[in-house]
TrEMBL record:
The modification 4-aspartylphosphate is found at D59. It comes from the Bacteria. GO terms for molecular function: DNA binding; phosphorelay response regulator activity. PANTHER family: STAGE 0 SPORULATION PROTEIN A HOMOLOG, TRANSCRIPTIONAL REGULATOR-RELATED. Residues 142-243 form the HTH LytTR-type domain. Pfam families: LytTR (PF04397), Response_reg (PF00072). Keywords: Activator, Cytoplasm, Phosphoprotein, Two-component regulatory system. It comes from Enterococcus malodoratus ATCC 43197. Gene3D superfamilies: 3.40.50.2300, LytTr DNA-binding domain (2.40.50.1020). The lineage of its organism: Bacteria, Bacillati, Bacillota, Bacilli, Lactobacillales. This is Response regulator.
């Protein structure tokens, strides 16, 4: 799991990070990373680079903006629909309006609470996340690892991979988030039979293609996602899609 802490008060920030680290040690829980920051843009950038189970502790008021944390939580939900969000705040009156932001907050933790009380709230957040991991539906995962990065993401979420302006840096486009990592499209294509390089800039997950539009030269996954396809690759893509569909019908 990955832990994100957004707090602009350095004293509260350090206190909560210390509590989190103590809880991890006491319960023998491990975290891939702990990101502590006062900058929403930095946190959101890091969220896009992670795909494991995430937990977020967000201050509601940031730099004098009383609802900034709620706005950040809303942006997080665009990237991560499953993560656990808890607000660290002195503004408990904001609890009812979180519904309007559609962020599904798990908890509100009052900054002025005794340390033991804060600690119990944090433990409850971790236990909720871990319980979801254990009891959730087992999904087939795409696992990637090299000397630069490692991550895993459900195959069902993968739409396509695309090149970026940086040499050998790819962007994975999923239904709910983006992941940037270093590799080549040729390397990715070889990792699974469902991956197919349809264009010099794109490798697609054939399972999630909704339509191939020949006249436009585009592949559609849903209303929000599409990418280009080389016309000479259309026939092969359709054949591979049919082959995959037949395989799953037999099984």
């Amino acid at each position: 799991m990955n832990i994100f802490l957004l707090e602009d008060d350095i004293i509260h920030q350090q206190r909560l990070e210390l509590i989190i680290r103590e809880i991890l040690v006491e319960n023998r829980w491990s975290a891939n990373s702990i990101v502590t920051t006062a900058r929403p843009d930095h946190l959101l950038e890091k969220v896009q680079e992670t795909v494991d189970q995430n937990i977020y502790f967000l201050d509601i008021e940031l730099n004098g903006e009383k609802k900034k944390g709620l706005e950040v939580a809303h942006q997080i939900r665009q990237l991560d629909q499953r993560g656990v969000i808890a607000f660290i705040t002195t503004h408990s009156e904001f609890a009812p309006i979180t519904y309007a932001y559609k962020v599904s907050a798990f908890d509100f933790i009052a900054k002025d609470s005794p340390v033991d009380e804060i600690k119990q709230h944090v433990v409850d957040c971790f236990e909720n996340l871990l319980s979801t991991q254990l009891n959730g539906k087992k999904e087939e995962l795409f696992i990637f690892s090299n000397q630069h990065t490692s991550f895993q993401v459900p195959f069902s979420d993968i739409l396509y991979f695309e090149t970026t302006e940086i040499s050998h840096k790819l962007r994975l486009i999923c239904k709910s988030r983006l992941v940037n990592f270093y590799a080549t499209l040729d390397e990715v294509e070889k990792m699974d039979a469902r991956f197919f390089k349809i264009h010099r800039s794109f490798v697609v997950n054939l399972e999630n293609i909704a339509e191939i539009n020949r006249s436009e030269g585009l592949v559609y996954f849903d209303k929000a996602h599409s990418c280009m396809i080389s016309r000479r690759k259309i026939r092969t893509a359709l054949e591979k899609m049919n082959s995959i569909n037949q395989h799953f019908q037999k099984n």
